[in-house]
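Hey L., structure's done. Input below.
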Amino acid sequence: MTLDYDIIVIGAGHAGCEAASAAARLGSRTLLLTMDMSKMAAMSCNPAVGGVAKGQIVREIDALGGQMGRITDRTAIQFRMLNRSKGAAMWSPRAQCDKTRFSEEWRHTLENTLNLYIWQDAAEELLFETVPEADPVAGAGSEWASRTASGAASGRRRIRGVRTRMGVEFSCRAVVLTAGTFLDGRMHCGTAQAEGGRAGDAASHGLTACLQAVGFETGRMKTGTPARLDARTIDFEALEPQYGDENPAKFSFSPDTEPVREQLPCFLVYTSPEVHETLRGGFADSPLFNGTIRGIGPRYCPSIEDKLHTFADKEQHQLFLEPEGRSTNEYYLNGFSSSLPWNVQWEALHKIRGFEDLHIFRPGYAIEYDYFPPTQLHHTLETKHVSGLYFAGQVNGTTGYEEAAAQGLLAGINAHRFLAGKEPVVLKRDEAYIGVLIDDLVTKGVDEPYRMFTSRAEYRILLRQDNADMRLTPLGHEIGLVSHEQYAYFVQKKSSVESLISFARRQSIRAAEINDYLKSIDSEPLTQGRKLSDILMRNNVTFETLRPVLPQLDEFVQTNAISAEAIEEAEIQIKYRGYIEREKFIAEKLHRLESIRIPDDFDFHSMNSLTIEARQKLSRIRPTTIGQASHIPGVSPADINVLIVKFGR
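Output:
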């Protein structure tokens, strides 16, 4: 007996949950295959969502119709807008979450999603077939589907199903693989080793070998997690509290969620030379240093032993003590990830101020796992080797819940659209951080676990967290993930923003009306009347501070019921207008390269005018446009000019 579905999503981490939710809500009969139904979107590492660049990604997920932002709002225990003292392009939302409730909320959401079914078991084998020439891929009416069909017709494999550890066989037309750290996962704590995808969970075997057999390249990566601490044994009076924002915002643009109430504090903690000395005493037994761990670790989220090795002259490192929920005594020590022997961790932790009587629930550990270099993917996240097979999350060499969720969302969308014969959704680098993420993975590959930074984006002023809905909600509505009600709410907000900007540009302000206020904030008084928008260009001048001074402004805001979110968006657009227009101009110039397509079967080795490195890189990665080719390391501007001459006519 074989059970039949349109799409099977393997793994219920952050990528898998978003992929399954999106595919099912769009109308595909979807199966979510997971080894443990009680750990949907488990927060295996820190109990938080967002942060620098990551918060922007979550806002984009929400704007497209994904779930992460809503679930974060419903389970948040603290909210902070990071980098508020910097420009708006750097503002980054971050929330501490109740990790148990976060997982429970995801499970409730998925169990009540139409077209979505859940099966608890381990996937052990992917089933393939070779496409006959006369058997077109679904949806051959589109240019994209025709291209896919022609690739398949030349003997390309396509997915046909999944077989599980319990011997159950499922048939399907698309698979989204989101196995996280579980593929042949191995945990390390000092000299001790154990198989597992994370503490308490078994590793997944079979899939890596199955994919290697059909030509996939694989590698090993490493990540880690710190000890979990018992709050009853911590002297919080000795620690420095770090509170959430006084007026917290939220992640979701939807009116269905609210900002967090009754926030819990985090705490700042510091190591010392005595702590460092104890930790260094365990380096001989560190699997990180003695050659036991061969996987590549994350440079930007290093273990405590990595920090001591890299920054040997530093006498202290700042750590963050974070609550894991409202109803638990478990705390997460951010910045103290370690694979040192448990007794070394224990001794070192007890030398930290406030931890003198500490008890830990479990020590930190490192985990090695298999991944697939993402240059083996199209920008749709479909694999180049197998039609209908999509990869998302840590299997692509990324790290972080947010990066995984974003990939899962796009993979789920594109798997559905593949089956429906519709054009895929591929976000450009000037449209979303998600576009930067996927383009980086596919064109540049990874040599360490990839995480997003604002510095990776060329168009940071365009890709702000505040305008993610302006950029992406129309697309989310068009593809079917943003409801009509949510879209109507967005249209109203957009109208409010535009009307307030228009009001500010046409409203004249007399010097006598504003000069007392300007003097009070040490700003140069006016010598003649100016437009309200000109006054807003000044530092420390905002709509909110002007409302008590300018009755006509306050009346306009109240009469038109303009929300605080719309006011902030209008203000940012006014203040950064010049920068925004300049980045748009640059992006539009580069769009021409994205419109010049490269034939799928083009032989780059036949072009002797390209450098040898460019020919090798282009042949391996196979970009579909000159714009994509321009992002590949080793492809020079001169090489791009050669391609423009060849294909730009």
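The chain is about 35% helix and 15% strand. Residues 138-154 have pLDDT under 50 and may be disordered.

-- N.
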